[in-house]
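// run 5 | inverse folding | seed 20
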């Protein structure tokens, strides 16, 4: 809410007590609600003064420009070229002198417009910072006329309320009382212990007719409108509101319309009580009914849009004809126009939940609906209605008929809460006396009664509907006493050492490893479509994903059972923006349904997806040489498992049955024979669905890895002695795998064997049928001395003999 400092100062002695707007805003932020901004509308403007248009003539070189002689000081008249259609002589206007600075940063200079000298600029409200939302519609395309008593040459700011300071508060849902000047005055009077000078105006019923003879009101169900009241004001004169009222409105962010509508908006800001005005003569039956809308019922709102209503929407009807969407927006057929003579004025409390639902569904959020959603003070419904009638009588010359028509009226409820002084001090860490508490409640205007030396009965008025239990009163005591005044104490209790537990260290190290191998971290949604959520499961037998009862969108309806799908969506986003090389990983939870249970099992997974190349293209390497393949991703997984020191046998087994992966380029990752993940290329048909190119992915279930034994991490010095290598080429059956050969070599390799490297694979016409050739380099090195040829040859011969025996290898 935009709160005017000058308006607050009208009711509270803020300036008198040296409370500046900045200090006031800081105090509100520390004790009541958040602050979005503190600003003065005149900020950034310079040399903008009151000018008197003495004469005008047409520009000789233009059919729309005029040459005006404008008096800008007692003894100074300047010539200004202006194109405003409503420029007339004798009016006082907003004048930006040469050298002036406007709201958008524009600097006004002396210039010539089509040959005629112009020494300034005549301004519309928008040009000095008013937005289209608040600038009066009648002056949208023309100049704004200042009051006749404005002093020529004086700055314009005080005449337009621009010398005020606006405190833009961010009101939380529980403090709906702060959406009004009345609520802010009450709160600040309590915070600063100031005299509360808030005043209301009593209506004078100067009409001769009885309201009950002119209009009737019924409510179908009191839940729809716990309070509903009407007044009738006759013979009003529709015209512009006085400038003071327009200033109050546009500083509150509301556009002035006419005196009738402006009065209802003024009361809305002052009391937080939305009002609605009907053109009495456009009501056909003069019998107001509040009811639920029929499903699919049509209604045209003030903005000219036809709305299709639902059965839970609330309508205010003229007989059976809809006249307003309760608490949200009025109707086109009964709105106040320039021809309105008689006005029916509504003040009500509507069901906040229903108002919010209809406003959200129809996208018709307004100042009124915002207040109805957060709550209305039942104490001031009639007060606000009466003051609105007073101002319509004063400003529009209306005749207020006798009495109020009341369809429903909810009794004002006072909340009684019993407090213990000892308990208050124990909770807050203070040493307040019962008299101190009474004083604080008096500042809040909460009646209190001492039951004994310790107990206090506090009566909370209905205007503070956010207070219901003792803890709420503890908060009120604390914020009035001052959070800064609460003594600081060290916490007591058993001290514990901080740090990460074993699981947290493992998960954090996982991210470091993935980043070390060149993958970038991604964070994707935990909600996907049902099809995406069920794809790429580590354990495909987990079943179908859990569906949300009330999803926010059709793309986020099910809890994910994999992470890969989210990464593919991220890759598609990048590829669509010409980013061809993408390497992503994500660590997070998946949600696996359990039969017979409402809550799913949560597992920690890590997944990666890579497309394109992991390294940049070079002058001596073709792009195709750098493309990621199955073995690149397998190497990433192997490095991850090695760095995470997972004990146990890691193996990889081809799997042709994963429907979402390429049947010839897919393998399960096994730990001691248990499947803990997979590696593979996304199936071409699935890749087409996600709109990604050839992409390789992996996903690991971290739960068994977390539970697995870990190798001791220790370091050895790098040997300073030379290494010796031996190469061997083997002819084996095509069914024999590289893993079998490497295992066989390491079984008898001896203590000096440091590495086994496959450097060649050959399959061709020069080999026997069903045979292949693999060539390996074996590296031998001793830690404590230089190896001899005899030592290496002996170890190498054992390997050759073992290979012949284990895999029936022929040495080439």
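// decoded
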């Amino acid at each position: 809410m935009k709160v005017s400092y000058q308006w607050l100062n009208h009711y509270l002695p803020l300036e008198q007590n040296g409370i500046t707007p900045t200090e006031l805003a800081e105090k509100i932020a520390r004790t009541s609600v958040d602050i979005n901004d503190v600003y003065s509308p005149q900020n950034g403007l310079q040399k903008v003064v009151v000018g008197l248009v003495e004469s005008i003539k047409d520009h000789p070189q233009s059919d729309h420009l005029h040459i005006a002689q404008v008096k800008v000081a007692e003894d100074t008249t300047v010539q200004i070229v202006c194109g405003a259609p409503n420029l007339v002589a004798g009016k006082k206007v907003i004048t930006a002198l040469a050298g002036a600075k406007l709201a958008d940063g524009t600097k006004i200079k002396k210039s010539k417009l089509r040959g005629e000298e112009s020494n300034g600029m005549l301004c519309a409200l928008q040009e000095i910072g008013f937005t289209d939302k608040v600038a009066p519609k009648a002056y949208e395309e023309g100049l704004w006329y200042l009051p006749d008593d404005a002093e020529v040459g004086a700055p314009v700011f005080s005449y337009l309320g621009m010398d005020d300071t606006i405190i833009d508060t961010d009101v939380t849902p529980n403090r709906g009382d702060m959406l009004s000047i009345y609520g802010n005055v009450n709160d600040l009077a309590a915070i600063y212990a100031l005299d509360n000078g808030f005043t209301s105006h009593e209506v004078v019923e100067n009409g001769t007719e009885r309201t009950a003879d002119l209009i009737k009101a019924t409510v179908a169900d009191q839940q729809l409108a716990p309070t509903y009241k009407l007044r009738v004001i006759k013979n009003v004169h529709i015209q512009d509101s006085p400038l003071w009222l327009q200033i109050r409105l546009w500083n509150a962010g509301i556009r002035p319309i006419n005196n009738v509508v402006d009065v209802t908006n003024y009361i809305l800001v002052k009391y937080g009580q939305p009002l609605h005005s009907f053109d009495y003569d456009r009501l056909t039956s003069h019998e107001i009914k509040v009811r639920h809308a029929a499903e699919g019922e049509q209604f045209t709102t003030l903005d000219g849009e036809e709305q299709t209503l639902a059965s839970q929407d609330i309508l205010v009807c003229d007989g059976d004809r809809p006249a307003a969407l309760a608490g949200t927006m009025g109707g086109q057929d009964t709105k106040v126009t320039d021809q309105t003579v008689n006005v029916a004025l509504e003040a009500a409390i509507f069901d906040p939940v229903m108002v919010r639902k209809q406003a959200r569904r129809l996208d018709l959020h307004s100042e009124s609906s915002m207040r109805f959603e957060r709550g209305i003070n039942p104490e001031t419904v009639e007060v606000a209605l009466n003051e609105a009638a007073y101002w319509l009588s004063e400003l529009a010359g209306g005749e207020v008929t006798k009495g109020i028509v009341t369809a429903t009226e909810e009794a004002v409820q006072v909340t009684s809460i019993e407090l213990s002084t000892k308990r208050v001090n124990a909770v807050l860490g203070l040493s307040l006396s019962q008299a101190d508490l009474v004083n604080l409640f008096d500042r809040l205007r909460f009646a209190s009664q001492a039951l004994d030396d310790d107990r206090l009965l506090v009566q909370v008025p209905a205007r503070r509907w956010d207070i219901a239990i003792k803890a709420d009163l503890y908060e009120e005591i604390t914020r009035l006493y001052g959070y800064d005044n609460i003594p600081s104490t060290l916490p007591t209790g058993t001290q514990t050492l901080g740090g990460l537990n074993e699981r947290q260290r493992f998960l954090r190290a996982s991210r470091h490893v993935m980043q070390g191998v060149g993958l970038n971290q991604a964070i994707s949604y935990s909600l996907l479509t049902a099809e995406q959520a069920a794809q790429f499961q580590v354990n495909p037998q987990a079943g179908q994903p859990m569906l949300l009862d009330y999803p926010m969108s059709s793309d986020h309806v099910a809890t994910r059972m994999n992470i890969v799908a989210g990464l593919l969506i991220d890759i598609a986003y990048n590829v669509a923006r010409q980013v061809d090389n993408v390497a992503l990983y994500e660590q997070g939870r998946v949600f696996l349904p359990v039969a017979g249970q409402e809550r799913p099992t949560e597992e920690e997974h890590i997944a990666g997806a890579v497309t394109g190349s992991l390294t940049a293209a070079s002058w001596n390497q073709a792009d195709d040489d750098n493309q990621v393949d199955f073995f690149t991703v397998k190497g990433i997984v192997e490095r991850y498992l090695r760095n995470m020191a997972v004990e146990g046998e890691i193996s990889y087994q081809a799997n042709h049955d994963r429907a979402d992966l390429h049947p010839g380029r897919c393998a399960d990752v096994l730990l001691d024979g248990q499947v803990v993940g997979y590696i593979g290329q996304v199936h071409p048909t699935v890749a087409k669905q996600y709109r990604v190119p050839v992409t390789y992915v992996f996903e690991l279930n971290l739960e068994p890895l977390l539970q697995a034994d870990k190798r001791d991490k220790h370091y050895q010095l790098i040997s300073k002695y030379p290494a010796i290598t031996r190469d061997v080429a083997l002819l084996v059956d095509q069914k024999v795998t590289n893993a079998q050969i490497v295992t066989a070599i390491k079984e008898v390799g001896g203590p000096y064997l440091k590495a086994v490297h496959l450097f060649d694979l050959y399959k061709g016409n020069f080999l026997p049928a069903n045979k292949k050739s693999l060539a390996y380099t074996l590296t031998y090195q001793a830690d404590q001395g230089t190896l001899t040829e005899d030592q290496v040859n002996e170890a190498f011969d054992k390997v050759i003999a073992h290979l012949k025996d284990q895999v029936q290898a022929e040495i080439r």
